[in-house]
Specification:
77 residues, mainly alpha, 83% helix
Amino acid sequence: SVCGATNVLGQLGRAPEAPALALVVLIVASAIYYAMLIYAPRQIVEQEGTPLIWLRRYGLFVVSVVLGIAWLGVLGI
C-alpha cells in the first residue's frame, strides 16, 4: 500500500489533464532556461535579432526538447 501511495507518475498518467499540465510545465521551465542561459548572455555580448526571430528560435528549442523527450519514451527510459 505504501508503494501505491507514492506512485506519483502513475497517478498523473491516469489524470485526464496530465498532458496539458506537462506541456505547461515544459513551456514554463524551458522559457526560464532559455532566457537565462541562451537569450540573456547573447544579448549582453552583442544585441541581435528581433523579438519575432527570438520567438522562432525559442519555438525551435521547444520542439527539439519535445523530440528529445519522445526518444526517451521510445527507448523505454
